[in-house]
């Protein structure tokens, strides 16, 4: 046999006897698609085969649309809302056991739309004045009891000489008489009867609480409709509108007006606000000047972390009077770093701890500056609890205890308030843990919603109220000692909530304005292009801050926003009517929150300053991705995912006499 043939034979034998050829070949068996009705449950028939035989290998499955389609640990899928969804299936064992490392597949799920059951029409007055428009307040309900916004509704009028109705449900009245309006969706109809009466309105009186202000200042208009004798017509349907001319000819004079008479302007210019009821109307003209709150911001110092991702931060004054910081790390080796920041231009590490975790996502310090709590995720033994640390001497921190009970799913965020730690568990609930004796912590209660597929990301506690961020369930206000609802740490009582449509509520922060308004700011977390977690990954986030007016706890109103184009919000801080917010790839942004809030704060010129921390030596070079910001003794401290801990400072505020005073 030739030498070449011998080599080929030996190579073939080696390949046949190689470890790869001896590996069992695994495969996930799952249906390509399933169809469900709303409310239906089904056990998913998915499993792993090994060399063609069914194995007992654990299979995991989950839906990203948990509120619409939920899969539990026993592979039971339940449909809550109609639509098309995907269930991701992941096989157990090593990825290398699967051909080409493909240990996952997906199932397409169609949840059928139920038939329409009812068209509700509400709020139609007993009489309508001729010549005034009336919106038809209607809701389409299907047989599953769900509100449907995907259904085409058509409208017809029995007598269009008296009233007509647009394709959007706006009724326009012309003369006195009775008329029937019918709304129809699929095979369901609802007919209402309208009584159109003579219009007595001859005059509108319009007043406002001023006629000039800065962009972003909120005006309050009051309109009265009167008849020929000067009597007020209390039930007159008054509508507000505005027209503006911007000082800058390249911009439109945008703003926002509410139908209760509130108005705010985005651009400097001249605006005319009109109140109308049928043919009667009245107008007032306003002069709007620039808000002029911009200030310079400069970088002061940096504590570099360039070998791993940095997560959250907390700054505090130590018991020795010096200033310190703690930062976590993400997707790495379970370290938390302690820093001396007494001189913000000279930030340096003084100690660290390492725990069994891949991620130390959150770090918090007690009110007296003696205790630190850090969270753990990705522990080797799956005991992803929290760690309690003595930081009386931040140069020699000591681990006092660990708390792992009920925390196997990971602790993503924590908060310390009055000798209790509020700690997330498995992304579904939070526990209140007593740490009066920090060496012997114990749980005293938990708070969890009972909605389908509920989840939670964060909890913040202030004045005895816990503000939790519950993704699609939105902002939850829970009494844990405030007394407003009789709650305590051992008896948390939910008393208010607000959920906004995109379902991405990631953080919540309370803000009690000097105007008397009580706001809660809810922040999104969205990664429209995915999240590249490795070294060298450059990311772009999405989402914004939703400012919700909770002054009336039973009727919270989303009233304003903070949005930065092509970037997404993360964590933030409010102090002295100023918002400091980390906007991921758009750096740290600083906003003026003074006065009443309404509309788009950035368009209004309320952005004071911004700083983007580019670092050529970062874990990913020149890829800013700011995580959180905190004001401490006049300096803005913030952490960046790719470059560590930073400090910056705003120039002093402009003298008040150069500004038009806020209303």
Automatic annotation (TrEMBL):
The keyword Signal applies. Gene3D superfamilies: 2.60.40.1080. InterPro entries: Invasin/intimin_cell_adhesion (IPR008964). The keyword Heme does not apply. Keywords: Signal. It comes from the Bacteria. Residues 1-24 form the signal peptide. SUPFAM superfamilies: Invasin/intimin cell-adhesion fragments, Putative isomerase YbhE. This is BIG2 domain-containing protein.
């Amino acid at each position: 046999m030739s030498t070449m043939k011998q080599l080929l034979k030996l190579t073939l034998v080696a390949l046949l006897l190689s470890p790869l050829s001896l590996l069992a070949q695994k495969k996930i068996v799952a249906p390509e698609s399933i169809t469900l009705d709303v409310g239906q449950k089904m056990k998913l028939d998915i499993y792993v085969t090994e060399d063609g035989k069914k194995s007992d290998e654990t299979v995991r499955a989950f839906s990203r649309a948990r509120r619409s389609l939920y899969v539990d640990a026993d592979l039971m899928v339940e449909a809550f809302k109609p639509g098309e969804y995907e269930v991701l299936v992941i096989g157990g064992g090593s990825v290398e056991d699967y051909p080409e490392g493909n240990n996952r597949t997906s199932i397409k799920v169609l949840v059928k739309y139920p038939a329409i059951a009812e068209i509700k029409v509400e709020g139609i007055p007993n009489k309508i004045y001729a010549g005034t428009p009336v919106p038809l307040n209607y809701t389409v309900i299907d047989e599953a009891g769900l509100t449907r916004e995907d259904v085409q509704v058509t409208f017809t009028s029995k007598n269009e000489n008296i009233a007509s109705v647009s394709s959007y449900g706006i009724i326009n009245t012309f003369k006195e008489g009775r008329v029937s309006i019918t709304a129809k969706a699929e095979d369901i109809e609802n007919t209402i009867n309208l009584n159109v009466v003579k219009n007595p309105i001859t005059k509108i009186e319009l007043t406002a609480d001023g006629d000039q202000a800065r962009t972003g200042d909120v005006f309050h208009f009051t309109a009265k409709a009167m008849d020929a004798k000067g009597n007020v017509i209390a039930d007159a349907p008054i509508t507000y509108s505005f027209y503006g001319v911007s000082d800058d000819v390249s911009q439109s004079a945008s703003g926002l007006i509410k139908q209760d008479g509130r108005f705010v302007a985005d651009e400097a210019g001249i605006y005319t606000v009109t109140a109308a009821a049928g043919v009667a109307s009245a107008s007032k003209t306003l002069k709007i000047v620039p808000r002029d709150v911009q200030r310079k911001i400069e970088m002061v110092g940096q504590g570099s972390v360039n070998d791993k991702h940095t997560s959250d931060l907390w700054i505090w004054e130590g018991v020795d009077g010096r200033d310190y910081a703690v930062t976590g790390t993400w997707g790495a080796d379970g370290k938390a770093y302690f820093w001396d920041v007494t001189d913000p231009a000279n930030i340096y590490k003084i100690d660290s701890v390492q725990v069994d975790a891949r991620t130390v996502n959150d770090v918090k310090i007690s009110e007296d500056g003696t205790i630190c709590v850090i969270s753990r995720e990705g522990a080797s033994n799956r005991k992803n609890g929290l760690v309690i640390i003595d930081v009386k001497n931040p140069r020699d921190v000591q681990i006092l205890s660990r708390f792992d009970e009920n925390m196997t799913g990971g602790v993503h965020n924590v908060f310390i308030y009055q000798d209790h730690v509020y700690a997330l568990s498995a992304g579904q609930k939070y526990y209140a843990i007593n740490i009066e004796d920090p060496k012997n912590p114990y749980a005293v209660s938990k708070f969890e919603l009972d909605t389908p597929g509920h989840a939670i990301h964060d909890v913040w506690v202030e004045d005895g109220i816990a503000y939790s961020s519950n993704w699609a369930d939105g902002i939850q206000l829970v009494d844990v000692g405030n007394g407003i609802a009789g709650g305590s740490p051992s008896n948390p009582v939910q008393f208010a909530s607000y959920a906004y449509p995109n379902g991405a509520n990631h953080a919540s922060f309370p803000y009690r304005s000097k105007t008397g308004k009580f706001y809660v700011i809810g922040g999104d977390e969205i990664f429209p292009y995915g999240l590249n977690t490795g070294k060298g990954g450059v990311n772009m986030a999405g989402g914004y801050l939703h400012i919700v007016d909770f002054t009336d706890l039973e009727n919270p109103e989303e009233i304003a926003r903070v949005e930065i184009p092509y970037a997404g919000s993360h964590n933030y801080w409010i102090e002295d009517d100023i918002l400091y917010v980390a906007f991921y790839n758009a750096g740290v942004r600083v906003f003026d929150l003074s006065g009443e809030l309404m509309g788009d704060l950035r368009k209004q010129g309320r952005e004071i300053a911004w700083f983007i921390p580019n670092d050529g030596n970062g874990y990913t070079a020149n890829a800013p991705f700011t995580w959180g910001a905190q004001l401490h003794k006049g300096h803005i401290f913030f952490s960046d995912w790719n470059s560590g801990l930073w400090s910056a400072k705003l120039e002093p505020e402009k003298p008040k006499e150069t500004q038009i005073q806020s209303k």
